[in-house]
Amino acid sequence: MSLHPVVTAVTARIVERSRPYRAAYLQRLENTRQKGVHRSTLSCTNLAHGFAAAPQNDKLVLKQQTAPSIAIVSAYNDMLSAHQPFERFPHIIKDAVRKAGGVAQFAGGVPAMCDGITQGQPGMELSLFSRDTIAMSTAIALSHNMFDAALYLGVCDKIVPGLVIGALHFGHLPAVFVPAGPMTSGMSNPEKAKIRQLYAQGKIGRDALLEAEGQSYHDAGTCTFYGTANSNQMLMEVMGLHLPGAAFITPNTPLRDALTAHAAQRAVEISAQGKSFTPIGRLVDEKTIVNAVVALLATGGSTNHTLHLVAMAKAAGIVIDWNDFDALSAIAPLVARIYPNGDADVNHFHAAGGTGFVIRELLDAGLLHDDVLTILGRGLRAHAAEPFLQGEQVVWQPAPAVSGNTDVLRTAADPFSGDGGMKLLSGNLGRAVVKVSAVKVQHRIVRAPAIVFDSQEAFMHAYQAGELNRDFIAVLRHQGPRANGMPELHALTPALGSLQDAGRHVALVTDGRMSGASGKVPAAIHVSPEVLAGGPLGRVRDGDIIELNAETGVLQALVPEAEWAARGVEPADLSQNEIGMGRELFAMFRHVVSAAEDGATTFGLPPPLLETDEDKPTNTLAVPDDEPFVDEDNLIERPIGN
């Protein structure tokens, strides 16, 4: 099928908008690539330091310039369930790379924090900025210039975007992303949500709540709901940075280990010394980014990626904005229902057909670009597959032709909804995004008086005091990246959900985040500009009638224009956001961070190059013109790389 005209148009305007930045980025990659094997530029003293602790045979390989050196950059820690499985991966990787003729070294670790642990706590105010910290940590790991390709081990919210940003700043190096997989299913999502609401209502105690949470989060692996962590994994698949179907294989299983070894071998094959050199900076292009946005929308993914994808694209010299998300959302069919957009978890989604099914459906509907580079070669269709073990060998078969559960996964021709359920809102309160894929139609338009809060705690005090048993729109301000690091606001979800269930018309408007677990209550989030940057949300007063219309895209304070213009922004005491739990160490981030629509990042676009005879921008980069390693005719039980 031919490409959908909206996908074509959005891609074209991104290409044009990005042209000077992308050309400069690619030229810098080419300049670095032409230097050859990177450890060859090191002095003997430098190089000796780089392999001093290596096994003797690895030293012999590293002294040569013909075999690749593969970096391992990992977000391992053993407190976070999603990253604990990575403890075993370096051994698997090193062994697989040696068998492929190279050497793998653990180049560095990056921090990994969990929003599920810091939710509603001061540490949550470091969460968004941890993404840029991870990118910088990745750069430090790779700065030794010893490496010819890299494997990136990460799963969760800010970790994968941070690793991608860091990898793209070393875009001359090929990259393979290696997931850990989700934990097995625990307590059902509807039951978990019910217990949380009962606790918020004071009907059950902390012991009962903790028991339920322990049954939900019970083992190694990613949390199983479709929040930012699992949205990350979907994106790595559709961007061609994972092996096909790798995202949702559970940890500590033979298939998971075999996929990890295969990923390591593939990194050798796409290194400069391998047969299929594929630098990540060339792989991630405008079409790849558009594919990521479409897949995010079509699966009801995390609103955090209206920040992260912007920042990731920027690292590759590509400029996208919320207008692009909005246009693509209008034509992206919702083909998956995974909690919070449904009752199922990612294990049910994977069993029903998973990422390979989604990729094939969207390709067949003309909604994804097939003509892209991936770690397998040219063509995204090679990723419309799922892995199996045949003995000890991984083989790939075509994704199922029919969904295993149409309550979880459907075709593009028979979707749950005709659009992706993420909307751009605008009006005199600024620009915001709202995720409505989990919001019932009758709740998508709310017009009610504002109640203004400057903290989550103030909202919860009012709720617990019984002051919110009415129709209202909560305006929670001073939650943007400059004010306090833009924490997620999930502590409000059970309370707002309870009020909505009781028949009240409620909504949330904030310059903060709600993210991947955005659920059944309409929430206009990421309002830009934020209040601390002079945003109009600071003009709202208690009792102002606010209209949040997720059908028409309106976010408006219904206040006479002259009165609105005459109002100033109410000051707020933000001193409590600045000290404690390490927040003082991140003051520089708060001072320089960009607006939400610009990715809420501290990194800018690559400056365009000057037009000189020596250094002219170019859109070319030498990449072998390989056929895909998995093709449609020979896909069944054909191992990648054989």
Can I get a quick summary?
The chain is α/β, with parallel strands linked by helices and 642 residues long. 35% of the residues lie in helices and 13% in strands. The strands form four sheets. An eight-stranded mixed beta sheet has the order 9-10-14-13-12-11-15-16. A four-stranded parallel beta sheet has the order 2-1-3-4, sandwiched between helices.
What do you see in this structure?
Catalyzes the dehydration of 6-phospho-D-gluconate to 2-dehydro-3-deoxy-6-phospho-D-gluconate. There is one protein chain. The protein has two domains: 5-184 and 219-415 and 622-634, no CATH class; 422-577, Glucose Oxidase, domain 1 (3-Layer(bba) Sandwich). Helices cover 35% and strands 13% of the residues. It contains 22 helices and 16 strands. An eight-stranded mixed beta sheet has the order 9-10-14-13-12-11-15-16. Strands 2-1-3-4 form a four-stranded parallel beta sheet, sandwiched between helices.
Number of strands: 16
The helical percent reads 25-40%
Mass-distribution shape: globular
Task: Tell me, rounded to a whole number, the average pLDDT.
Answer: 90
Main sheet specs: 8 strands, mixed
Class from secondary-structure proportions: alpha/beta
Number of helices: 22
Share in β-strands? 5-15%
Stretches where pLDDT is under 50 for at least 5 consecutive residues are: 612-642
Multimeric state? single chain
Q: What is the spatial order of strands in the main beta sheet?
A: 9-10-14-13-12-11-15-16
